[in-house]
Each structure stands twice: as C-alpha cells, then as structure tokens.
C-alpha cells in the first residue's frame, strides 16, 4: 500500500472554497484542494505555463464566483472538476491532478504528491 498523508478534514474547507497546503517534507511543490459538496479536487500547486504557484495570497485560488481556479501570474483559468485550462497562455494544458480519498472525513493523498 502506498504511503499517504492527511491534508485536513473535509469540513475544514468551506463549501465551494479552496485551501492550499505546503509541500511534503523534502518536497518543493504545495497542493491545493477545492471542495464541492462531499467531494474534493486536489491538484499540484504549479501553473503549467511557468511552474509557479497559482495563488496571490494564501488559499486564494478561485475566481470571484468560485467557478474556476485562477493563476495569479498571467490569469490562466482552470476547471475545478478536472484542472483543464480553458483560457490563458497554457490553454489546453491541465493542472496535475492528485488522487485523493476521504477516510472518516480526512482528505488523504499519496505521501509523495508534491515531491
Ligand atoms: S504562470 Fe500561470 S498563466 Fe503564466
């Protein structure tokens, strides 16, 4: 079985909101999670355009309507559901999705996600 790490409890992310997480120990790239009801979508926090973190300030990943993940550097927009970039300089690329599962309310991801 692959080692996992817990990001947080699902209830610690408000409905429709996003939250950022630091890299794993020894890693370089953080993660972000967006909650949609009882589901969560987790991605590596790196824009496919230049590889930089997406958010302009902690946990600020979404547009005003909460419909898209936005890259603050050049404004690329990504679908929450699958990370696909619908507009911007990396249109057609996708955020790197991270498999996650919920166990007793905890969001678990592979321990090496973000390494
Ligand atoms: S670095 Fe994200 S759109 Fe350019």
UniProtKB/TrEMBL annotation:
Residues 5-109 form the Rieske domain. It holds the Pfam family Rieske. The keyword Lipid biosynthesis does not apply. It comes from the Bacteria. InterPro entries: Rieske_2Fe-2S, Rieske_2Fe-2S_sf. Keywords: 2Fe-2S, Iron, Iron-sulfur, Metal-binding. Signal peptide: none annotated. PANTHER family: PTHR40261, RIESKE DOMAIN-CONTAINING PROTEIN (PTHR40261:SF1). This is Rieske (2Fe-2S) protein. It comes from Muricoccus vinaceus.
